[in-house]
Design brief:
Blueprint (H helix, E strand, L loop, with lengths): L7 H21 L7 E5 L4 H13 L2 E6 L4 H7 L3 E4 L5 H4 L3 E6 L3 H7 L3 E9 L15 E3 L7 H12 L8 E5 L3 H10 L5 E5 L2
Parallel strand pairs: 1-2, 1-4, 2-3, 4-5, 5-6, 7-8
Helix pairs in contact: 1-2
Length: 198
């Protein structure tokens, strides 16, 4: 059931981002208190939820973002922020227990380098299959995203407890679908894009 204090627009964005992030962080990566996770693309909607959720679990969170979004991801709870325009994350991060990649491409492949032996990485922007790991001592995983009622209720509970907040939203009318698609393809926006049907 939607919390009363949450608008329908925010509820839609929170549900979409939350289902994906929870599946990756809790069920696929099985992140535990005290572990370190690198979350790629921290200002995005799914990654932003993942930052908050990982902090709720009790993990140390490292994230990549642009300098323009550093304060935003810090407000979500990130412990260490890497400006991907100024630094190579693979040169400044090491010994992570887990990586959650929401970016794909070269970023996904380079993510394996920051894992400690026995580490695990989850990928949602690399197609239907997780990329092949160049190392035999780490796991490369593709989270399934369930749509069960219990997941939705858990997201509502986390919201009501103040553990997570909805992503920033940019609203579009259906007549602006082409504009929204261009922004989405650029992959450098904060939060979530939402269509307002009525």
């Amino acid at each position: 059931m939607k919390p009363e204090s949450l608008s329908h627009t925010n509820a839609a964005a929170l549900a979409l981002t939350g289902l994906t992030a929870m599946s990756a962080v809790e069920e696929t990566l099985q992140l535990k208190r005290g572990e370190t996770i690198l979350i790629q693309g921290g200002a995005g909607g799914v990654a932003g939820f993942a930052i908050q959720f990982a902090k709720h679990i009790g993990a140390r969170v490292v994230t990549t973002t642009s300098a323009a979004n550093a304060d935003y991801v810090r407000s979500l709870g990130a412990d260490k922020i890497i400006d991907y325009n100024a630094q190579d994350f693979a040169q400044v991060v090491k010994d992570c227990d887990a990586v959650f990649d929401t970016v794909g491409g070269d970023v996904a492949q380079k993510s394996f380098a920051v894992l400690k032996p026995g580490g695990r990485a989850a990928f949602i922007a690399s197609g239907a299959q997780a990329p092949k790991a160049p190392r035999t001592d780490v796991a490369s995983l593709r989270p399934p995203v369930g749509r069960a009622r219990r997941h939705m209720e858990r997201i509502a509970q986390l919201y009501e407890a103040g553990a997570i907040r909805p992503p920033e939203i940019k609203l579009y009318r259906l007549s602006q679908a082409a504009d929204a698609h261009r922004v989405s393809e650029g992959r450098h926006f904060r939060g979530k894009l939402v269509f307002q049907v009525r």
